[in-house]
Amino acid sequence: MCVSYFVAKSFHITENIFWILLTIMVILKPGFGLTKSRNIQRLMGTVIGGLIGALILFVVHDETIRFVLLIFFFLSAYSLFRVNYIVAVIFMTPYVLIMLSFVSTNTMEVTKERILDTFIGGMIAFLSSYVIFPNWEATQVKFSMQKLLIASYHYIALTLKEIAGNEPTITEYKLVRKKLYVETANMGSTFQRMLTEPKNKQKYTKDVNKFVIFNHVLASFAVTLHNQVTSSRVNHTITKEHIKLIRKILSSLETAIKALANPNEENQFIPVDFQIPENQISVDETADENSTLMTEQLQFITKIVADIAKLVQQLKEKTSAEIDPMLNNKMH
Question: 226 φ, ψ to 5°?
Answer without folding.
Answer: -60, -40
